[in-house]
Amino acid sequence: MLDRWTMPLTHRPLEWIAYRLKGRVTPGQVTFGAFLIGISALPLLAWEYYGLALAAILLNRLGDGLDGALARVSHQTSEAGGFLDIGLDFVFYAAAVLGFALANPADNAQAAALLLFAFIGTGTSFLAFAIAAKQQGVERPDFPQKAFYYLEGLTEGTETVMALVIFCLFPAHFPILATVFAAACLITTATRLWGGYWTLRRHEEQP
């Protein structure tokens, strides 16, 4: 929901950094580096080092935006890079939730399981629509810099990062916070399935 406003704000700073990294590292190296930093949040959360985990999460998100900016300024954009980026993103998100479950299984496991269930809904509805939209030639005017067609929803990248930050700042309240966010993700899944279906139907019916 917030990505349409936050993404334009981050575009110029990320491009500024990308120009200074151009020729020094490749977009793929940034993608893998950001993922390795992000996945370190899993053990850090399990060991309840929430401050360090938060730093790893934020650095991962910085790298997630930076790899695309670097690909654009160095003219190395590719479908393969976009696929790797989104695939590792979903692994990272799931790992962060698992970390909270491992930190306090008795209190957090049920809410973490619910949130992972909701993540499957948002992720599959996003990717399934992207595949169909690509095949049908449906354009993405709102997010032209994305490698995949970006189907909007109540919970997008910005909201997910905000949720992870809040989880780290208030870990004792993870069960209720994760449950609320899971409910928002399930709403996103429902609206994406409905909106995606009718978008494709209308496109198929066009002469």
TrEMBL record:
GO terms for cellular component: membrane. InterPro entries: CDP-OH_P_trans, CDP-OH_PTrfase_TM_dom, CDP_ALCOHOL_P_TRANSF_CS. It holds the Pfam family CDP-OH_P_transf. GO terms for molecular function: phosphotransferase activity, for other substituted phosphate groups. GO terms for biological process: phospholipid biosynthetic process. Gene3D superfamilies: 1.20.120.1760. It comes from the Bacteria. The chain crosses the membrane at residues 32-59, 80-103, 109-133, 154-174. Keywords: Membrane, Transferase, Transmembrane, Transmembrane helix. Belongs to the CDP-alcohol phosphatidyltransferase class-I family. This is Phosphatidylglycerophosphate synthase.
